[in-house]
Amino acid sequence: MRCWNSPPLWNNPDNPRNGAAGWCGSQSADVSSVDEGDYYTWTIKEVENALRDNTDCKLACALYDIAELGDAPQTAPDRNVLFEALPLSAAAKAAGIDEAEALKRLPKIHEQLLKARNARPAPPVDENLYVDANALMAAAQLECGRALNHPDWVETGTKVLKEILTHGIQAGAGANGSRMVHVLLGRRVPGAANTDGGVGLAQDEAAVFAACTVAFEVTGEVYFREQAEASYKRLNQNFWDPVDGGHFDRIAGVNAEPLTSLPWTQKAYMDTAEPPANGLIAQGCMRLYALTGNLMYHDRAEATVEAFAAGMPKLGPYAATLTSVADALQNGVTVVTITGESKSAPVRELVETAAQLYAPWKVVTVHHESNEKHSVSVSVETSAGIKTAAGAAELKAILSGSSTEKK
User: Fold this and answer.
1) N or C: which end of the chain has fewer CB within 10 A?
2) Burial, 71: exposed, middle or buried (Cβ in 10 Å; 0-12, 13-18, 19+)?
3) Rounded CA gap, 5 and 299, in Å?
4) 0.90 cut: is pTM over it?
5) Rounded distance, CA 364 to CA 338, Å?
6) What single string gives the DSSP state of each residue in 200-262?
7) Which residues pair with 26 in a beta bridge?
8) In whole angstroms, what is the distance from residue 363 CA to residue 46 CA?
9) If you ran DSSP here, which 8-state letter would residue 264 be given?
10) How big, in percent rounded to 5, are the helix, strand and coil portions of the chain?
11) Which residues of the chain have pLDDT under 70?
């Protein structure tokens, strides 16, 4: 799907609405109780009124599958969700023009449709910056940015995660340990404390922990390793059950947050719209173990999976996050270690190659080593042993084999 300059869910730190970098919680589908996503969808008549050119209309309708019968026949039969239904060449043929002409017309079509849509009443935006969702999004930006060679995505993910770590940790008093807030208000009201009430939820801390391990892998910044280790300590202090294993969903006992917490605790391990706290913690522990070699993290990942092992087979795909950790525990992690000048072209090529190729539970690390010749060395460690690669082509062959070899 393509969306043209949709209402911004991204907040710039200089934006006075929120004053913190991150993504807003959501935008409603509807303006009122009587419309069915009218802001986002189109009828043929609306497209004709916006474009006012017969060829442009034919091209847009063919390319974005706009028809008399739309995509919600039961509730809004004439409204269409725009998506790229055909290659541009096929849409151009349907409009009676060649592909080059279609390519020239598209910017104007987008501009006119955007202008028409911006004239509509926009659904409200939940401007809260939720810590768990922002941490997960930051991790995705970091991983995808490296794999797809988008340094701006890596920069964005790094920026948001540092924003959370700077403004989202609330110091405890007395016996209470530090804990993560749920809504990142940042500098919305200068000098004001966070008053959203949602403090000390495992889902927020787990998402931040997992994101910090991703950030440490992608950027190599020691800061993120230290933050991941600090987050792990908070998870251990505030949520770990030393009797039956697993992590509770909120702080219990003397560390509880009585104004906002439910009067009971649970241990989230089932995947829903988001990965569960225990799954994120186990994944973060496995990644940190692979990056540091510290067996403590391996053991905590194993103990977390074991705490829920009995119920996992019944959940099928809804136990995907923990199952992936069980796979890593049984079959091992693929660790790619690249040694050389971290910013040199050979190292960047190797990192890009390693990041783009799939291998089960793959971790890519760069060990900076200054040398005048920009020479590099690569090792790939799997449960089958350690292999070395002389360059990107050999690394690609090794990783391609590691995704299919029997452990």
Assistant:
1) N
2) middle
3) 46
4) no
5) 8
6) SBHHHHHHHHHHHHHHHHHH--HHHHHHHHHHHHHHHHHTB-TTT-SB-SB--GGG--TTTS-
7) 126
8) 49
9) S
10) 45, 10, 40
11) 1-20, 173-176, 185-197, 252-264, 372-374, 402-407
Contact 21, 8 (CB under 8 A): no
Q: Which two tokens stand for residue 124?
A: 């409200």
The string of pLDDT tens digits covering residues 137-191 is 999 999 999 989 899 999 999 999 999 999 889 887 544 578 898 988 644 444 4
Instruction: Take residue 215 and report the two structure tokens written for it.
Output: 């950030």
DSSP string, 118-182: HTSPPPPEE---BHHHHHHHHHHHHHHHHHTT-HHHHHHHHHHHHHHHHHSEEPP-TTPPPEEBS
Rounded to the nearest angstrom, the gap between the alpha carbon of residue 312 and the centroid of all alpha carbons in its chain is 24
Residue 381, H or E segment: strand 377-382
Q: Which DSSP category does 183 fall into? A: B
Tokens for 120, please give them.
């509509």
List pLDDT tens digits, range 204-236. 999 999 999 999 999 999 999 999 999 999 999
Cβ contacts of residue 379 below 8 Å, gap of 6+?
336, 337, 386, 387, 388, 389
The encoded tokens of residue 147 equal 């794999």
What the block records as the tokens of 257 is 């947050």
